[in-house]
Automatic annotation (TrEMBL):
Residues 42-392 form the Schlafen group 3-like DNA/RNA helicase domain. It comes from the Bacteria. This is DUF2075 domain-containing protein.
Length: 412
């Protein structure tokens, strides 16, 4: 089986950076050196869609920073640097890498709240802070997570000399982490800053036309499947969820790292018990459980018997993903667009009210976009293929009709 685990992908000794990626790492290091002694903190943001290599770049960058910090003649010598990520499953991967490379230690990798509280308590500033999945930073207070400020990025800037972070606004999946371009610009405006946009797709072997189709679905638009949808990529649509599950299990036996996932909209409560998804064809599987191990959920063999969610799969590669679109998503017969039925939401934590959004229409749009963002995140997990099933009969029929048309046109 190919070794494309998250740990292997992010290990600096496994990186084969493209010229663009290497140039970006060098550019950020130059930016860091230039602004390290500035009067104000400086921030460098990297924007990019799912699978554009953001985490690989940050992993290599942090490795370079830590090596430079221990070189006496280097401009970065003696710097105290941190790597932050607000996703417990992704954090496990980085901490697993710690110690395998010189000067990269487990204590360097923290959740943002831990970093903020630790440096406040010690009354000091960090030199360089690298933030992966910055779109998961809290943008409002969250007492449950012991964050009492108004915005985590704003707090991190106060505690740092240079901040480097990646953003993907289409991966914002909770209201308490809500970000858009205007909100980010408001935070960074007072500080020296640069931005870089990544566009090349590294994860999926899908054609640009199929990726464009996925982008449209994630915005509620159901375009005709492109003629090359199955070129070098295993794209399928299923009429029942159980057949999809069996196909993913078979793929998992063949190549590993293949999982069934679903968008929110099925019963689920953080009460320690199992909550099942029941679908057509006799499909009956439990949601993913909280993962207390050091191994990422998708790399635990037994999780082939669970349904993954954004909480366990965001930020990770799978070889094949079987995506179930939940009852929240339906095809509107009036305009043939994919809509969100918020009356069927089951994850209250994901869509909690924000005190700073008082217009009901604006908040409703925010919640609908967050649900569509979860489609974007899960639809783009598969390196080799994605298998798709929709709960809504009208959406399922539309997808199946177009898929059958595609198969017939490719096999005249």
């Amino acid at each position: 089986m190919p070794n494309n685990t998250a740990t292997a992908k992010l290990a600096p000794n496994q990186h084969h950076l493209t010229p663009e990626q290497q140039d970006l790492v060098d550019r950020i290091l130059t930016f860091t050196t230039h602004h390290l002694s500035g009067e104000k903190p400086a921030i460098f943001t990297i924007n990019g869609d799912c699978g554009t290599g953001k985490s690989v770049i940050l992993s290599q960058l942090f490795y370079n920073l830590q090596q430079a910090a221990h070189e006496p003649q280097n401009d970065l010598a003696g710097t105290q640097n941190y790597f932050l990520v607000n996703h417990p499953e992704v954090l496990k991967v980085y901490q697993e890498l710690a110690g395998s490379e010189p000067h990269v230690l487990k204590k360097d990798f923290l959740r943002p709240t831990s970093f903020i509280n630790q440096l406040h308590k010690q009354h000091r500033r960090a030199d360089v802070v690298v933030i992966d999945e910055a779109h998961l930073l809290l943008s409002q207070p969250d007492h449950y997570n012991n964050f009492y400020g108004t915005n985590q990025l704003a707090e991190i800037l106060k505690l740092s000399r240079v901040v480097i972070c990646v953003f993907d606004f289409h991966q914002v999946v909770q209201t308490k982490n809500y970000w858009d371009e205007a909100r980010l610009n408001q935070i960074v405006a007072p500080y020296p800053h640069e931005t870089y946009h990544l566009t090349h797709q590294f994860r999926m072997h899908a054609t640009p036309a199929l990726i464009n189709w996925m982008d449209a679905v994630s915005q509620g638009e159901l375009l005709p499947l492109p003629a090359d949808a199955r070129t070098d990529y295993d794209f399928r649509v299923y009429g029942d969820a159980e057949s999809l599950r069996k196909a993913i299990v078979a793929r998992n036996r063949q190549v590993g790292l293949s999982r069934v996932v679903a968008t929110t909209g099925y019963p689920s409560t953080l009460d320690g018990g199992q909550h099942y998804i029941n679908e057509t064809g006799g499909f009956h599987m439990p949601w993913d459980q909280y993962n207390y191990t050091k191994t990422p959920w998708s790399e635990i063999p037994e999780t082939i018997n669970e349904v993954g969610s954004i909480y366990t799969c965001q930020g990770f590669d799978l070889n094949y993903v079987g995506l179930i679109l939940s009852p929240l998503l339906y095809l509107d017969p009036t305009d043939q667009r994919i809509k969100v039925d918020l009356s069927k939401q089951t994850n209250r934590e994901m869509l909690k009210r924000r005190a700073d959004v008082t217009d009901p229409a604006v908040f409703n749009h925010m919640k609908q976009q967050i649900i569509l963002n979860t489609v974007n995140v899960l639809l783009k997990r598969g390196i080799r293929g994605v298998y798709l099933y929709a709960h809504d009969p009208a959406l399922r029929s539309a997808l199946l009709r177009d898929y059958q048309r595609l198969l017939q046109s490719s096999n005249p």
